[in-house]
Amino acid sequence: MVDIESVAKEVTFYLSYLADIKREVQLYEQLYCVSENVEVLSATAREPFKIIRKSMFVSILTRMAAVLDRPDFGKRDNFSLSFLAKKYQQHLNAELVQHQKDIEDRFEALGASQFRNKFIAHNDYNAVFGKEDYTHTIEEGDLTELLNSMIEYCLILLDAIPDSVGISLHAVPYELSPEDDGFELVRRLRASISDDELCQ
User: Fold this and answer.
1) Shortest CA distance to 35 belongs to which of 160, 173, 198?
2) Which of these, 32, 47, 63, lies nearest to 143 by C-alpha position?
3) Spatial separation of the C-alpha atoms in residues 67 and 70, rounded to whole Å
4) Taking the CA atoms of the chain, what radius of gyration do you get in angstroms?
5) What pTM does this model have?
């Protein structure tokens, strides 16, 4: 007998992690994937925003790798998609099994996992000095699509578990509100600098 309240609690926590990452990805893309916004950031404080960009990218890749990690390491559990799949495997149908595989394959195909392992988690000597080549192919929208698929997976998993009807989830919002997002930040920064500063 599955304790549906415990399942809902776990899924809610996991969805909260995904929501938090998705909001960070949204902010990163609004700030650093729009050329006009990059110009404003550079004109306002080039070096600090350059450091913030790298820090955000490291944070996003590290957190994406964590929520897609294997279910356990030694005697310790990793709270990941694979953990949920393993714990509730008796409720998985063919759709969920394939859905999980597609998510993991897509993340692997981006090269994000190896890039994170070689350059972020470890300063791999051969990677740092170019003796081995590790690159990622992440483009705007890729991680958001993956996160949306993971959110969908969690909702399908919850529906597949008996007695889940009527269970409500309380994850944080999946997106930043327009009055508090990256575009709004850039708008405020833009208002604080002159056209001459922006053109430098």
Assistant:
1) 198
2) 63
3) 9
4) 20
5) 0.89
- For 33, the enclosing helix (H) or strand (E) is none
Angstrom distance (rounded) from CA 105 to CA 109:
6
Give, in degrees to the nearest 5, the angle at Cα 184 between 183 and 189. Answer: 95
Its sign, for the CA torsion 14, 19, 20, 25, is positive
The token pair at 6 is: 């415990």
Supply the DSSP symbol for 42: H
Per-residue pLDDT of the chain (200 residues; tens, 9 = 90+): 677 788 888 998 999 999 999 999 999 999 999 999 999 999 999 999 999 999 999 899 999 999 999 998 878 999 999 999 999 999 999 999 999 999 999 999 998 887 787 777 777 788 678 777 777 889 999 999 999 999 999 999 988 888 766 666 766 789 999 999 999 999 999 998 866 566 56
Phi/psi for 91 (5° steps) reads: -105, 0
Query: Cα 177 to chain center, whole Å?
Result: 18
d(CA 160, CA 89): 11
User: Helix (H, G, I), strand (E, B), or coil: what is residue 136?
Assistant: coil
